């Protein structure tokens, strides 16, 4: 039915609890930033609108509040490259090492140990961030390839949409699985290792998509449960806020559910997909036909193999 153990996934996350705590801190700070930006926007909009009347106050609060929320999401997107480096890449490196039977230190030493593994493969934050974007671009191209492969099947429109939806859910996870593969392939230039890892993913699309369906279902179910648990306090907050500002309570619930998902549920999904990827690709070599297909379909994939040596993150080449 699926190629991963839920118990093993929980075990990997539990044994990397220092990273889980770090993720909670990082994403809690992100939620506070989102709420602060939204709240500041609401306050400014309310004040400016109040110069023209009560209705204008509500309208101004809504407009400027949405603007503040959008601005904070924009800022957080740029901060993401450091989150990827300090938290996500380190966490996936730690879980992958445990999955392969390595021993890790405990406490804050584990974070230092895992981030040192990442630094050994990527000399600078911008190198890791740039490669992460190229990997994501390649997976988006892979969604298009699946459309081409199934266009001739009767009723394939629905199949295409389903495959695309599954792969988009997995998109936020696949790049981290490939990062684990890159870190594991010590001595191979990161760009070349990324290409090999993506080809292995593509040539095992069937079993990996099947596993992605189950992982996505678990992810959605747990996220919905968290949101429903937070909805009660959010409704209480909405009750105390005037008029249209009651929607701010829903923003609080959504932002909090997103943070808890990223801190607690996403690592479980990554741990499950790491197992499925290992099972699907064990003993395989990249298929040249798939390499050529991805080269033809994705400029991002081609860029992974044609970056200057200094940009590949290899020691001694910077």
UniProtKB/TrEMBL annotation:
It comes from the Bacteria. This is DUF4282 domain-containing protein. It comes from Ancylobacter amanitiformis. Keywords: Membrane, Transmembrane, Transmembrane helix. The chain crosses the membrane at residues 20-46, 58-79, 212-231, 237-260. The lineage of its organism: Bacteria, Pseudomonadati, Pseudomonadota, Alphaproteobacteria, Hyphomicrobiales.
């Amino acid at each position: 039915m699926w190629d991963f153990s839920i118990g093993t996934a929980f075990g990997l996350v539990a044994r990397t609890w220092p990273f889980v705590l770090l993720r909670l801190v990082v994403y809690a700070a992100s939620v506070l930033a989102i709420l602060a930006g939204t709240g500041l926007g609401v306050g400014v909009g309310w004040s400016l609108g109040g110069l023209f009347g009560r209705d204008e106050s509500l309208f101004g609060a809504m407009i400027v509040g949405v603007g503040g929320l959008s601005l904070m999401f924009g800022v957080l997107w740029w901060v993401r490259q450091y989150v990827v480096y300090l938290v996500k890449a380190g966490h996936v490196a730690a879980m992958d090492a445990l999955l392969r039977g390595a021993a890790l230190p405990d406490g804050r030493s584990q974070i230092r140990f895992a981030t040192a593994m990442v630094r050994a493969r990527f000399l600078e934050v911008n190198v890791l961030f740039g490669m992460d974007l190229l990997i994501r671009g390649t997976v988006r191209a892979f969604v298009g390839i699946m459309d081409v492969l199934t266009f001739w099947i009767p009723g394939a429109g629905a199949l295409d949409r389903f495959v695309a939806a599954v792969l988009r859910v997995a998109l936020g996870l696949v790049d981290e699985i490939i990062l684990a593969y890159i870190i594991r392939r010590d001595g191979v230039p990161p760009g070349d290792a990324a290409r090999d890892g993506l080809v292995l993913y593509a040539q095992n699309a069937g079993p990996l998509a099947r596993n992605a369906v189950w992982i996505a279902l678990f992810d959605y179910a747990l996220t919905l449960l968290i949101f429903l648990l937070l909805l009660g306090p959010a409704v209480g907050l909405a009750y105390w806020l005037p008029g249209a500002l009651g929607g701010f309570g829903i923003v609080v619930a959504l932002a909090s559910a997103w943070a808890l998902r990223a801190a607690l549920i996403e690592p479980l999904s990554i741990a499950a997909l790491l197992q499925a990827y290992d099972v699907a690709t064990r003993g395989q070599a990249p298929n040249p036909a798939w390499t050529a297909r991805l080269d033809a379909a994705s400029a991002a994939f081609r860029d992974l193999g044609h970056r200057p040596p200094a940009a590949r993150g290899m020691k001694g080449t910077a």
